[in-house]
Amino acid sequence: MTRIDKRKPEETRPMSAEAGVIKRADGSAVFRIGETIAYATVYGPRDLYPRFLQDPSKGILRVSYNMMPFSGSGDRVRPGGNRRSKEISMVTKKALEPVIDLGDFPNAVVDVFIELPQTDAGTRCAGICAASMALADAGIIMKDMVTAVSVGRVGKDVVVDLSYAEEDYDCPEGVADIPIAVLPRTGELTLLQCDGRLKREDLKKAIELSKDAVAKINDIQKKALKEKFKGESQ
Amino acid sequence: MIKSLSKGIRQDGRKLEDFREVSVEYGASKSAEGSARVKIGDTEVIAGVKMEMGEPFPDTPDKGALMVGAEFLPMASPEFELGPPGIDAIEIARVADRGIRESGAIDLSKLCIKEGEKCWMVVIDVCTINDAGNLQDTTALAALAAIKDTKLPKLEDDGKVNYKEKTDQGLPINCLPIAVTVVKIGDSFMVDPIIKESEFLDARLTVTTLDDGTICAMQKGGVSPLTVDDIDKMVGIAAEKASMLRKSLG
Amino acid sequence: MGKLVSKDKEIVVPGEELAQGMDYLPGQGTFRDKEAIVASRLGLLSVDGRALKIIPLTGRYLPKKDDTIIAQVTDVTMNGWRLDTNSAYSAMIGLKDATSEFIPRGADLTQYFSFGDYVVAKIINVTSQKLIDLSMKGPGLMKLHGGRVIKVNTHKVPRIIGKQGSMVSLIKNATGCKMIIGQNGLAWIDGEPENELIVVEAIRKIEKESHISGLTDRIKEFLEKKTGNKVQPAGEQNDQNR
Fold this sequence. Notes:
The structure holds three protein chains of three kinds. Chain A is α+β, with helices and mostly antiparallel strands. Chain A has one domain (15-223): GHMP Kinase, N-terminal domain (Ribosomal Protein S5, domain 2, 2-Layer Sandwich). Chain A contains five helices and eleven strands; from the N terminus they run ββββαββαβββαββαα. Chain A has helices at residues 83-96, 123-137, 164-167, 200-209, 211-229; strands spanning 15-19, 27-33, 36-46, 60-67, 100-101, 109-118, 141-142, 147-154, 157-160, 175-182, 189-192. In chain A, the strands form three sheets. In chain A, strands 1-2-3-6-4 form a five-stranded mixed beta sheet. A four-stranded antiparallel beta sheet of chain A has the order 9-8-10-11. A two-stranded antiparallel ribbon of chain A has the order 5-7. In chain B, β1 and β2 form a beta hairpin. Chain B contains five helices and twelve strands. Chain B is 25% helix and 35% strand. Chain B has one domain (2-248): Ribosomal Protein S5, domain 2 (2-Layer Sandwich). Chain B has helices at 2-6, 87-102, 135-149, 195-200, 228-248, and strands at residues 22-26, 34-40, 43-54, 65-71, 112-114, 118-130, 151-155, 161-170, 178-185, 188-191, 203-209, 215-221. By secondary structure, chain B is α+β, with helices and mostly antiparallel strands. Chain C is of the alpha+beta class. Chain C is 20% helix and 31% strand. Chain C has a five-stranded mixed β-barrel. Chain C has a four-stranded antiparallel beta sheet with strand order 1-3-6-5, with no helix packed on it. In chain C, strands 2-7-8-4 form a four-stranded mixed beta sheet, with no helix packed on it. In chain C, α3 (166-175) runs parallel beside α5 (215-227) and α4 (193-209) packs antiparallel against α5. The longest helix of chain C is centred in the C-terminal third of the chain and has 17 residues, at 193-209. Chain C is flat and about 70 Å long. In chain C, 39% of the residues are buried. The chains are: A alpha+beta, B alpha+beta, C alpha+beta. Chains in contact: A-B, A-C, B-C. Chains B and C meet through loops of B and α4 of C.
């Protein structure tokens, strides 16, 4: 089998990341995979109003995912969000929430803003990778990073990190796209969605195939964070 | 701050008429038909142009359309919130829009495909990445840079836009209008205000000029009135600083 | 026998394994998961014998009892003032705790502290729900006039102040500026405009190089170069809030 861009089944597109790219924020990062670029910033823990949103037992996490108006592959994306961006914001929050501990911050909020200036598939996963880096950069207590990538089936083949051309691939077997978020240390999943038809054994195969990519992405996340602070270790 | 300004020293050590470092990087978003990342000091924005097919406005049936929007993304500052653009973002977008429109920087008549029916619409969105002051000048410069960077997408025979294929045809550009905001605090005039200076300003004047010094848009803000002498002085400073910003466009 | 997986004074990130084995003990910023000790925040790993902890490098200020902070007035209420503490929580200061002056009933409280004013105050209590009580009764607690307030990394405040206030004294002697550093990551500087800028630059240098040894000497050298004067070695002056 060959993929449209000649990658191996388990191979991601080229990736890079940087931490601390937005000075106003308490934490920030950018994560790039292929032509997809995701920024994430963290503000907080900070005051939360209106009051009814507050949780007296711990701080809450809010996530907003947004595509910049010119970042789509076709028409302009109207600013102000839509059903898709609202759902992605919600699943991103659920993907991050299990690792973070805001017990020291009752009634407060940590805001995560994910912004995409340029996209080519895999945006929610790139957003989660950037967001977990930004949370770490902001000094939030978290038991692990969160690493996300899409896996799936293109035609008969199980592959990692589908590009837009692959998501769009026209073949009788069709395409299944499965974005997942993984806690790299334990291998547990915190995000799992699926678009398309999929056999049970292919799901297992796809998640198994992602292991190498998850380790690589986690490595890129860690290196970028360490790079930002390298002047501070002796 | 006043004490310091009377000695000509600003909060960050600059002189009154110094800009922070300006950088322009073209092609910041491959998804857009044209884009640029502009940094002035720690202030950073990305502007992108989307070319859409639409109907000309009834009062200009033989012209293409132009729209500039500014998004104060909440990622860029703890002060920015989710939701529709506030009045500050609207003002900045409209001042940038007026500079480009009124100067005739883009020859919109060349963007009409069929009179009264079909034309190109140039939609420029400027998104803030980090706000460290002077979003007005940064936004206007980025909008202009994105226009310069734009290549029209292919127009198929059936009249649909094929965004996957860019042509090598750029936008018809006549001139480069540059916005410079001059701020008055006490008796001092300065350019490129950081946030703290904007909080304390008595008055501001954004002047958009062309390379021969012709004014094509202005906007006064702040609570204090300005004398005619003040205004003349501010226009002079703006025109002088505009040439420096124009050079940064390459 | 356990073994250390990460090195002492190394930058570690959340989820990173620091050590294996039960003979290592998890301290602040770490947790145990079966045999492993794992980092739960980004920071500098500190190994003290068998005890492991993370020294944080980032993160917002968490209010603590007895901290002296710089706070800004955001509201004036019936019986006191609300202040921004540069943390996730605002604080209240009542009339009695704010000043020893007698304030008559119905007085205009903005005469004492108005919106936007900065004050130096001490945290006298923090509840479990992070309600903060402040007091301004005590030496060095006062309203700030003039100068400028800058944000500094709250985790670097001990380094900026120095041992017994030695670093602050060094900078004050060299520049003639008045300085107060709040534990909450706000610093007040008041002096000649040129000198205020030198102080800001010195603070930024301390923040960046705080974990590299010989900091005091480097800052002394920096100040001498910037001011063109010989700088007195930091003396026994230990009252940083003057």
